[in-house]
Amino acid sequence: MKQTIGRRHSCLPGYLFIFWILALSGRVRACPKTCACYVKTEVHCTFRYLNVIPKQIQVDVERINLGYNSITRLEEADFSGLQKLELLMLHSNEIHTIHENAFSDLSSLQTSAISKHFRNLE
């Protein structure tokens, strides 16, 4: 009986390690590395010297602030899958190109702020 108990407990560190890895990987996906996510539904990426929209934004996000960066283009897939997004702040960037389908998945979008110097719509 003692051998069986010892075997069960010897697996515990392995299970804890796997749980820790899974929890960590979920956290990375939930918030882009260069941003701050104080609550699960908000992504704050202001003043981060970003050139592109971060790719690791979770689908449950409701508010994104990408203001004061160096973003120049909005691509077709930048906001794909973000149907719950209500607020999108893109002010004080250098956006000059917006793909015509860049906002197609944003069915819940209520408020947006975008710099108004556009040259191209693709």
From TrEMBL:
<dbReference type="Pfam" id="PF13855">
    <property type="entry name" value="LRR_8"/>
</dbReference>
<keyword id="KW-0732">Signal</keyword>
<dbReference type="InterPro" id="IPR032675">
    <property type="entry name" value="LRR_dom_sf"/>
</dbReference>
<dbReference type="InterPro" id="IPR003591">
    <property type="entry name" value="Leu-rich_rpt_typical-subtyp"/>
</dbReference>
<dbReference type="InterPro" id="IPR050541">
    <property type="entry name" value="LRR_TM_domain-containing"/>
</dbReference>
<dbReference type="InterPro" id="IPR001611">
    <property type="entry name" value="Leu-rich_rpt"/>
</dbReference>
<keyword id="KW-0677">Repeat</keyword>
<protein>
    <recommendedName>
        <fullName>LRRNT domain-containing protein</fullName>
    </recommendedName>
</protein>
<dbReference type="GO" id="GO:0005886">
    <property type="term" value="C:plasma membrane"/>
</dbReference>
<keyword id="KW-0433">Leucine-rich repeat</keyword>
<feature type="signal peptide">
    <location>
        <begin position="1"/>
        <end position="30"/>
    </location>
</feature>
